[in-house]
Design a protein that fits this description.
By secondary structure, the chain is mainly beta. It has 6 helices and 33 strands. The strands form 9 sheets. Strands 1, 2, 3, 4, 5, 6, 9, 10, 22, 23, 24 and 25 form a 12-stranded mixed beta sheet that branches. About 5% of the residues have low confidence.
């Protein structure tokens, strides 16, 4: 068969493999155009004679029972270029002698194929669900955002794949002019600049999670030691380990709030000195003898009583001392008529009051439930190493990607252990960072494909052309060019019988080269001692691929320093140290009030008023503040990235 002969066969949908039986002419083809652009299915337009029956009446191409699938093939000499497609829409010029049919090589299971392929591409760091809302995750097109790739539709099998927009996966087609088939036609050559390249992408993103954790911190020893250091009472009044001057009834009880996210999980308090009162009676008697005769006798009795709340001593007099005395003397007449004292009694009553000190043996364990919102803000600028197409390289365009927000990393489990203080410095966080870099890289790579070259190859080369390949062109008018095939067309004009071929390639204008990794300096110990996996580094650059690298940030949380991954101590959780207040009028270091000092100086004070003031002044109030377990924190990280190395598909500077 001569080259340039087209075949057209109506087929069933199940005839997915082209065979010799399809090399037939079910329609008389007068002209055709087969084309495909990057990201789209191939299309075929054919002009055929309007079908008629034996009586010469027109036959409806879309009538019941008519086949709508077709194989098309064109003999290019060494091989066939083939197309399988489905008739779409109503044929145009249906009442003319010649009608136009439109076919598309679009798979009937397009959605299922895309979803199945997308599932294989949902891998870190190219795809990161941490920054993709749940409602967008089912969209297969979202998967490609981190790739420099685009959907590819095979024009024969209708299998959907993805193809890189810079480097084709299925090899290279060379048009080097060294052979007859390696030459391109003089007509049809064109070079255009599609747009200016991006010079830089500025990225900012926020990762949020809720730091969570539960635990207990024993505050007993801290409180006792701090209390002793601040207590102005004489040291001699404190006895026993852990004793403080306080009433057990005033000690915080289980379940009491201790601040944001804190409560008493365990506590005990016992008064070291019991409350109560008592009395003691002492006395004696005596007699006087004279001349062997008992002249008189005497006796005395003393009773001491106490009523108090118990204590280890009395500090300060709360009121004046009072004393009353009564004396009774009785006399008698002796035998000589002389008067003598025959009886004598004296009663003395006195009272005084003071402020009693108490000591307790306490324990206090604080329990926390942490719910602390954390945010890490990541920013970096990725610069493309590209050739300028403007006279001033500084005029290059920049793109901002600043609307990137993560889901709650705790809720969806991306952070792993929710007690963490940093996400981006973890292994999973580094993958999220790499995803951001790949997003920026994809934009820069695609926009670096500035040069578009169209040329007309010989018909014999067209069976080699697919959108999964690169093409290399040597042509005196453009020099050398290497680019991804982004479109092709093959057309026959029935008016002149000429077949026209066109291939379009997109060429990147990078400067080439590769990014360089760096080991950096370990911050903990020599790398030969602990390896690279158990410590952080400064100045370390790791590569995502040969085009780009970055320095993983070290954890540097801008928070209150609480490490919920470790066992917390009182020193870790105390934000405001313990302070003691002795009543509203008592200043630290001032003498405590007594009746003959500070308060009692007011002559108008009654004992009752003075007692009230004195008790207020001697009241002890202890305060301290624990670090909040509900506070929110944010940390900014500025990440260092290498310049993006982009292949040189076309050297504008050499033109």
């Amino acid at each position: 068969m001569p080259a340039g002969l087209p075949y057209f066969a109506w087929i069933d949908a199940s005839e997915t493999t082209f065979g010799a039986e399809h090399m037939r002419w079910d329609e008389d083809v007068f002209s055709f155009e087969l084309s495909q652009d990057e990201g789209d299915p191939a299309n075929l337009t054919v002009v055929v004679r309007r079908p008629v029956n034996e009586a010469g009446d027109a036959i409806g191409l879309l009538g019941p029972g008519r086949k709508i699938w077709a194989w098309f093939a064109l003999d290019c000499g060494p091989a066939l270029i083939k197309f399988r497609g489905r008739l779409v829409g109503i044929p145009t010029s249906i009442f003319e002698e010649l009608v136009t049919l439109e076919f598309v090589a679009k798979p009937v299971d397009l959605v299922a194929q895309k979803e199945a392929l997308a599932n294989t591409l949902r891998v870190l760091p190219y795809y990161d669900e941490a920054v993709i809302e749940p409602e967008r995750r089912s969209d297969p097109d979202v998967v490609l955002e981190g790739y420099t790739a685009i959907w590819h539709y095979d024009r024969e099998s209708h299998v959907i794949t993805v193809s890189d927009e810079i480097t084709g996966e299925d090899g290279l087609v060379e048009f080097d002019g060294a052979s007859e088939t390696g030459k391109v036609l003089y007509d049809g050559l064109g070079l255009t600049l599609t747009s200016g390249p991006l010079s830089r992408v500025d990225v900012s993103a926020e990762y949020t999670w809720t730091q969570q954790g539960r635990g207990d911190v024993d505050l007993t020893q801290y409180i006792v030691n701090a209390w002793r250091a601040l207590d102005p009472f004489p040291e001699g009044y404190v006895r026993g380990e852990g004793a403080i001057k306080f009433k057990a009834a005033d000690w915080p009880k289980h379940g009491a709030s201790l601040g944001d996210g804190w409560e008493v999980s365990a506590s005990t308090a016992a008064d070291l000195f019991p409350a109560g009162g008592g009395s003691q009676t002492t006395g004696g008697s005596g007699s006087v003898e004279f001349g062997g005769q008992n002249w008189t006798s005497a006796s005395h009795t003393e009773t001491h009583s106490q009523s108090s709340e118990g204590g280890i001593g009395v500090v300060g007099q709360s009121g004046p001392s009072t004393a009353t005395q009564s004396v009774n003397v009785t006399t008698s007449i002796d035998g000589d008529g002389h008067m003598y004292v025959s009886g004598y009694s004296r009663s003395v009553s006195s009272s005084s009051s003071g402020i009693a000190l108490q000591a307790i043996q306490p324990t206090l364990v604080a329990g926390y439930t942490a719910e602390r919102p954390y945010t890490e803000r990541i920013s970096f600028s990725l610069v493309a190493d590209v050739q300028p197409i403007l006279t001033d390289p500084e005029d290059g365009q920049a793109l901002r990607l600043d609307d990137i927000h993560s889901v709650n990393l705790t809720k969806e489990g991306f952070i792993g252990d929710p007690r963490r203080r940093s996400y981006i410095a973890t292994e999973r966080g580094n993958l999220s960072l790499e995803h951001l870099i790949l997003l920026a890289r994809a934009h820069l790579m695609k926009r670096a494909r500035v040069v578009e070259i169209a040329f007309a190859p010989k018909l014999a080369r067209m069976p080699e052309i697919t959108l999964r390949k690169n093409a290399f062109l040597i042509e005196p008018r453009v020099g050398e060019a290497l680019g991804k095939i982004i479109g092709y067309s093959l057309a026959l004009d029935g008016s002149d019988g000429r077949i026209k071929c066109e291939v379009r390639i997109g060429c990147a204008i990078g400067r080439g080269g590769s990014a360089v990794a760096s080991g950096g300096e370990p911050t903990y110990a020599d790398i030969s001692y602990v390896g690279a996996d158990y410590q952080q580094f400064t100045g370390r650059t790791i590569l995502i691929d040969a085009s780009i690298g970055y320095q993983p940030p070290s954890a540097d949380a801008n928070d209150d320093g609480l490490d919920l991954l470790s066992s917390l101590s009182a020193a870790d959780v105390i934000e405001v140290p313990l302070a003691l207040q002795f009543g509203p009028e008592h200043d630290e270091g001032a003498p405590l009030p007594v009746w003959d000092g500070v308060i009692g100086a007011d002559a108008q004070d009654t004992v009752e008023v003075f007692n009230q003031k004195a008790m207020q002044s001697y009241n002890i109030k202890a305060t301290f503040k624990l670090k909040s377990m509900t506070r929110d924190f944010s940390t900014d990280y500025e990440v260092q990235v290498t310049d993006l190395k982009i292949p040189t598909g076309y050297d504008l500077e050499a033109v």
